[in-house]
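[agent] plan:
  1. take the single chain provided in the ticket
  2. run structure prediction with default settings
  3. attach structure tokens to the ticket
  4. add a short note for the reviewer (M.T.)
[agent] executing step 1
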Amino acid sequence: MKKYLLALALPLLMSTACQAAALSPRDQATVVNEVLADRLDNLLPGMMEQTGIDMWVLVSREYNEDPVLKTMLPAEWLNARRRTIIVFHRDPVKKTVEKLAVARYAVGKSIAAAWDMKKFPDQWDALVDIIKTRNPNKIALNTSRHFGHADGIDHTDYIELLQALPAAYKQKVVPAEPLAIRWLETRGEREMQIYPQLVNATHRIIDEGFSERVITPGITTTDDVVWWFRQKIRDLGYDTWFHPSVEIQRSGKGLADPTVIVPGDLLHVDIGITYLRLNTDVQQHAYVLKPGEHAAPAALAQAFGQANRLQDILLAQFKEGRSGNQMLAGALAQARAEGIKPTIYSHPLGYHGHAAGPAIGMWAMQNGVPGSGDEALRPRTAYSIELSAASVLPGWPAPVNIMLEEDAYFDESGIRYLDGRQKSMYLIPRATGGAPSGN
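[agent] step 2 finished; step 3 output follows
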């Protein structure tokens, strides 16, 4: 049954004429739960050992979920229930991890209910009993200065938990930040069978949206295309973690409506989908052909090539153990030496669109990102390679910014794009010689 359902998840895009729809909600739930069980059984023990944390306590109340705990809920749970407490305890001798729920219910099939409400009417007393019985060296709570994803315990729960702890255990409380980041950023084998399909789905949606099937020059507005993308994503059964955007860069002046797409426009889209708890984030370009044109102007194509080169420069910086700030500095220096005018603002990708892990620049932080930029690169992590290269072109009133974003995966063998990258602009209309993005 498991192999059958995973097979359903993989060929997301078997349709040729149009996008294939997502799995049914029931089949999605099965895949999500299988992936979650695999992560809890096969990834979490190693993460706890690597970070030296032998007890991890996650606390959430309904509708105010800790971002980490939310990734551990079964697919059938859309929210935590009342106050949900999850405890992971690693026995260093047996090298096993207990998965306990101090809650009214078991949390799915992987996390067993461990609250005897007759013996411990108070939930905090039940948690303290579990802690005292196992006597951990560290009690890790989700607090973090630099990563909101790892700062999920709210003020009330934090105060009440500390008040309930005996004095001898208060000094064992530590931030769970390093463990929380690893949990969020590390991708399992089954996830990486699925992830390329999500990126391919995103690419195909852009392929259709940036075509004459959707855009009629002189009539279609950028907002029309934005809402087409939003509707298409929903129609296919996916979700999106942010509202798409479509922008125009234009060489001409004096047009009555700057939002109406016309021949000669350079279009840019920023779009991402959410599916099976994973997220994509992609930016690509299209050029609207003028009458008699069969290709984009050579200067524009050259500008696009510079942005591709900037991608290559950044990817060459991906080495295990380097910080995001080190990769940023190295890539910017190399790009500038080659005459490129770069801006780099890449970020981890996974359970969140702007995910936990090393930040590689931000728009307004090209000298490094304090905190998250100091985080080190680790294998089995995904990234949005997001950047831009500016070029001054004849006849254009402002520098042309080629803003590209493609999703990639880093492991022991290096970094690779999950579904290739755009190497040339889409042309609208395609019939006159336009070529889709290539690998």
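[agent] step 4 note for reviewer: The radius of gyration is 24 Å.
[agent] ticket updated
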